[in-house]
Write a structure and sequence with these properties.
This protein is α+β, with helices and mostly antiparallel strands and about 500 residues long. About 20% of the residues lie in helices and about 35% in strands.
C-alpha cells in the first residue's frame, strides 16, 4: 500500500447570508466549527423524552419525495427516497478509538479465517519457475501469431507507437527463465510484521525486513488464498483475503471483483443486469450470509450484517462488463450497532486531507466486507477496526426531520452552485435516506480517537451531460452505497465524509 493524499470531493464554503429565508435551518447549525471539541457539550434530551419510537420523535416519514430545479434546469435534485430509521427510542454519542495494532490483532484475524491452515510467505510461494516463464512466453507468442500485439491494451503513445513491446517482453522473460529455479521453495511462516524476505535478483539479491507489511499465501481445503496485511500509514491497517482463481488463462491480465450496484444502476456498456448476476450464482443468499457471518463472528468484535449487494468478477482492461464476467457472489457489509443503531455503511473510505500540503496523518473509517460465492469466501477486507468506548452523551437531543430536510435541500444546491460551468446538466437521484452513526475526529489533535455521532445520509446516483453534449452518464442510484450528503442529526452541521469530520 502506498501512502496517498486524497483530495476532498466537495469543498463547501458558506457565508452567513446563504441560509437566509429558511426558518428551520438556522445559520449557525451549518457553519458551526466541526472539530472534535465542538461536540463534547452535546445536550441530553432526557428532560423532554417521551414515549415513542425514534421515527415518531423525529417526525420522520417512511418515504420522502421532493424535486427541485436550479440554474435554469441545469441542476435538478430529484428525491424519491425510502427513509430508514432504526427501531429504537433514542440515540447517544460514543467514544471510539483505533484498535491497537499488535501481534494479537494479527492473530485474531488470521485465526478467524485460517485456523489450522498452512501459511507461506508470498515472496517464496510466488517466485516464478522456469515452467512459469515458459508458459507465459508461449502465451505471448500465441498473441503475436494471432496479430494481437497489445494484449493488455496499453494503447499507443503520442506518435502512435504501441506502448507495450511484446517482442521486448518475450525477450526479457526468456532471459529471466535462464536463472529461474526449477521449482520454488515455499517458506512456511506465521503472519506477522518484521519478516525477512529476499529482495532483488542474482548477485544483487539481499535479505530485507518488511516492518509494516505482510504478504502470504494460505493453502486451505477450500482453495488457496492471498493474505496481505498493510500498515504503512498508521493508524490505518488493512487485512485483505482473496481466493486465488483457477480459471484465468493469463495471470498478467487485469481481473478483479466489482460491486454489483454500480453495474446494475448504469445504462452504459458496463451495465450488468441483476438477472445476469443471479444466473451465475449457485448458492442461496441465506447460505452465503451464513458463511460470511461464521467467519466474522470469530473476530469477537460484534459486527453484524448491515447491508448487502452483489459482486461480480471480471477480467480484461476495459472494466467490468457482461461479456467479461466470469463469476458472481454476494457482497455483505458488516458494521457495529450502538444501542440498536448501526454505523452507516457508505462507499466512502474517509481519511482524506484538506490539501496536498497537509502534514497530518489521517484516519480512515472502519470497514468490514465479505464476498461469498458458490465455493465459499472469495474476498474479505477488514480495515481500521475500532475499539468502542463509553457513551459520552446518552439520549442526545436531535433535530427534527423537517429541519434536516431543509438543510439537505439547501446544501445540495449550494454545493453544486457552479456545476453548470463544467456540465451541461446534472440530476441527482436520491433514493435512500438513512439515520445512523458515523465517526468524526479532529486530526489536528490526534489521529486515533474520535466520536460516533448520529447522522443522516442521502444516497443515490447522478445523471450528467457534458458541455459538448457528446457524453452522458446515467446512474439511477437504486442500489447506491454513495452518500452525497451527511448531516449531523444533533446540530445540522455538514460532515465531509471524505475528511471524516
Amino acid at each position: 500500500m502506498k501512502k496517498r493524499v486524497f483530495a476532498a470531493l466537495i469543498c463547501i464554503s458558506i457565508s452567513c447570508g446563504c441560509l437566509a429565508g429558511c426558518e428551520k435551518t438556522p445559520e449557525e447549525a451549518v457553519v458551526r466549527e466541526k472539530s472534535a471539541d465542538s461536540i463534547k457539550s452535546y445536550e441530553s434530551a432526557e428532560a423532554k423524552k417521551t414515549d415513542g419510537t425514534l421515527r415518531e420523535l423525529l417526525g420522520a416519514p417512511e418515504h420522502y419525495t421532493n424535486e427541485k430545479s436550479y440554474e435554469n434546469g441545469g441542476l435538478i435534485i430529484d428525491t424519491d427516497a425510502e427513509v430508514t430509521v432504526p427501531e429504537t427510542t433514542a440515540a447517544s454519542t460514543c467514544a471510539v478509538s483505533a484498535k491497537e495494532v499488535n501481534q494479537d490483532l494479527i492473530d485474531t484475524v488470521t485465526k478467524a479465517f485460517f485456523d489450522g491452515d498452512t501459511v507461506y510467505h508470498s515472496f517464496t510461494y510466488d517466485e516464478w519457475t522456469k515452467s512459469d516463464y515458459q508458459e507465459q512466453i508461449t502465451l505471448l507468442k500465441k498473441y503475436k501469431a494471432e496479430g494481437n500485439l497489445d494484449p493488455y491494451e496499453h494503447g499507443t503513445d503520442e506518435n502512435g507507437n504501441l506502448q507495450y513491446d511484446i517482442d521486448q517482453q518475450i525477450q526479457g522473460m526468456e532471459e529471466k527463465m535462464q536463472s529461474a529455479p526449477e521449482e520454488n521453495e515455499k517458506e512456511e511462516v506465521v503472519p506477522a510484521f518484521g519478516l525477512e524476505y529476499w529482495n532483488g535478483k542474482g548477485e544483487e539479491r539481499t535479505r530485507d525486513i518488511d516492518y509494516n507489511h505482510f504478504g502470504g499465501v494460505v493453502e486451505t481445503s477450500q482453495g488457496n488464498y492471498d493474505y496481505t496485511i498493510d500498515y504503512l500509514m498508521a493508524p490505518n491497517i488493512t487485512f485483505t483475503i482473496e481466493k486465488r482463481r483457477e480459471d484465468l488463462t493469463d495471470p498478467l491480465e487485469f481481473a478483479a471483483w466489482t460491486e454489483g450496484g454500480y453495474l446494475m444502476d448504469t445504462d452504459s456498456e458496463n451495465h450488468i443486469s441483476e438477472e445476469k448476476i443471479q444466473s451465475m450464482l449457485q448458492i442461496s443468499y441465506e447460505d452465503a450470509r451464513k458463511i460470511a457471518e461464521e467467519s466474522i463472528e470469530k473476530l469477537g468484535w460484534d459486527f453484524k450484517v448491515c447491508d448487502w449487494s452483489y459482486s461480480v468478477f471480471t477480467h480484461g482492461e476495459n472494466g467490468a462488463r457482461e461479456d467479461t464476467m466470469t463469476d458472481a457472489g454476494y457482497l455483505f457489509y458488516f458494521s457495529r450497532e450502538i444501542n440498536g443503531i448501526p454505523i452507516t455503511q457508505t462507499s466512502i473510505y474517509g481519511g482524506a486531507l484538506e490539501d496536498m500540503d497537509s502534514t497530518l496523518e489521517p484516519w480512515s473509517y472502519e470497514r468490514c466486507e465479505v464476498i461469498v460465492g458458490d465455493d465459499g469466501i472469495q474476498r474479505a477486507v477488514i480495515m481500521n477496526p475500532y475499539d468502542i468506548g463509553e457513551i459520552q452523551t446518552a439520549n442526545v437531543s436531535l433535530m427534527d426531520f423537517d429541519s434536516i430536510a431543509g438543510i439537505y435541500e439547501q446544501m445540495m444546491e449550494i454545493s453544486n452552485a457552479d456545476i453548470t460551468k463544467y456540465e451541461a446538466q446534472r440530476t441527482y437521484h436520491i433514493r435512500k435516506i438513512v439515520f445512523g452513526y458515523t465517526r468524526i475526529y479532529d486530526p489536528t489533535k490526534d489521529n486515533d480517537t474520535g466520536l460516533l455521532v448520529p447522522v443522516w445520509d442521502f444516497f443515490g446516483g447522478i445523471d450528467s451531460e457534458a458541455l459538448d453534449g457528446e457524453s452522458y452518464n446515467h446512474d439511477s442510484g437504486e442500489h447506491s452505497t454513495r452518500s452525497f450528503l451527511t448531516i449531523n442529526a444533533i446540530d445540522g452541521t455538514v460532515i465531509d465524509r471524505e475528511l471524516g469530520y
